[in-house]
Amino acid sequence: MKRLSSISILLILCVVAGITISGCKNGTSGNSATPGALPDEPNVTFKDLSGNDVTLASLKGKVVLVNFWGTWCHPCLEEIPLLMGMQQKYGSKGFTLLGVATNDELKDVIPFVRNTQFSVGGQQMTMSYPIVMGTDEISSKFGGLIGMPTSILITRDGKIAKKYIGSLMPTENQVAKDVEAQL
Predict the structure, then answer these.
(1) Which of 2, 31, 57, 105 has its CA 20 to 30 A from that of 138?
(2) CA quadruple 103, 107, 113, 117: dihedral positive or negative?
(3) Is the pLDDT of residue 41 over 90?
(4) C-alpha span between 86 and 95 (Å, rounded)
(5) CATH number for the domain harbouring residue 98
(6) Is 5 exposed, middle or buried, given 0-12, 13-18 or 19+ CB atoms closer than 10 A?
(7) HSE on the CB side for 9, CA within 13 Å?
(8) Residue 127's domain spans which residues?
(9) pTM value?
């Protein structure tokens, strides 16, 4: 995916204007509006960093937070320790994060994931949750992206519960409550 410059501008305008939509079908929340209707149960196949298929359906039975991010996206990078902490806290309870890299090139993502250290609970560590590659087609199956990062909370039965547009950091407590409600 390209760096979504026009989308980023739209997100900034939405944040500045204070646009927030909540209570919509599927519980959209965050710092801006939803670009389109959310599907009830997206049928998505990702490629992991080794080129293997990973289907969203294969994660049924778990609560999944699908997080669209990019190595070039500063707010995305800032929230990675929060996401890693969530994986540590809820992983044993049937939760998983799925990081969807929106970079155009796999060659940019692999060294970043393997080598970049983040501070989580006072410890330096690399990303501790599965990373897959995203495409425009994949993002459209989640209702499209109008900003980065974007996260989608998926229920144990594979349905979209909420969509968060923008960094999860300002809404960290609400996101934790949303995840806990699904566990």
Answers:
(1) 31
(2) negative
(3) no
(4) 9
(5) 3.40.30.10
(6) exposed
(7) 2
(8) 5-182
(9) 0.80
